[in-house]
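Dear Dr. K.,

Following up on our conversation at the group meeting, I've run the structure prediction for UPF0102 protein PQ457_05660 from Novosphingobium humi. I'm pasting the input sequence below exactly as I used it, so you can double-check it against your construct before we proceed with anything downstream. Let me know if the numbering doesn't match what you have in your notebook.
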Amino acid sequence: MNWKREADRIAAEARGRHGEGLACEWLRDQGFEILAQRVKTPRGEVDIIARQPGLVVFVEVKWRAREADLDFAIDQRRLTRVARAAELLWPDYAKAGDDMRVDILLLAPGVIVRHIANAWMPI
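The predicted structure tokens came back this morning:
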């Protein structure tokens, strides 16, 4: 076993959880109810599932140590995985008449949260 690699993975997971916690706080401040976190499906994982009246949002959270790194934190492949997972999870979280969207929250220390609403647009 590569102990350094394992230590790096554990540290990265802790940073991710920290970022997701901050994202949940931000979403609550915006009037969202947090329904679930870190929901895994065969198609991928959704970091946060949140609700406002008439809307269910599947959120991908990216936490980076530096603001400059946020510009490269998300790519089409990762976003596609979140969207595919959201398609599977939708029936479990939606109510009749709800809309659905996939959002991205980008966070870094000392930086205002970057919220990209309705980030998923199929090609």
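Two things stood out to me. The beta strands are 33-41, 44-52, 55-63, 99-107, 114-116. The chain has a mean pLDDT of 90.

Best regards,
J.T.
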